[in-house]
Hints:
Layout: E1 8-9, E2 14-19, E3 22-27, H1 29-35, E4 38-42, E5 49-50, E6 55-61, E7 65-69, E8 74-79, H2 82-85, H3 89-92, E9 101-105, H4 117-124
Antiparallel strand pairs: 1-2, 2-3, 3-9, 4-6, 5-8, 6-7, 8-9
Amino acid sequence: MNFPSNLKYTEEHEWIRVEGEEAYVGITDYAQSELGEIVFVDVNTIGETVGQGEVFGSVEAVKTVSDLNMPATGEVLEFNEVLNDQPELVNNDPYGEGWMIKVKVADLAELDKLMDAAAYEAFIG
Length: 125
């Protein structure tokens, strides 16, 4: 398992990486391994402000569908369109090319409620 130290993590297994006023969001290496082969990522909240913990989309694997929860309140600016044709990037590179959305975070203080890499690693055991 991979736990990049520059990310913050949720109990629902999403990660967020802040770059200036924007942030990238995806699911963790642990989440993709538990879900199995990702076949579709559905995000229909572009242009909307989604609250911390609220659902911003879903990810479909061969055997299940799972909601995607927003790590911090923000406006969904962009969906990673590459995932339409290559959803397997979520499995192969969950912290890089497999990112799901770009957001404008409304309140960076909300990130303090999330886990750092060490806490997330301990959380999943």
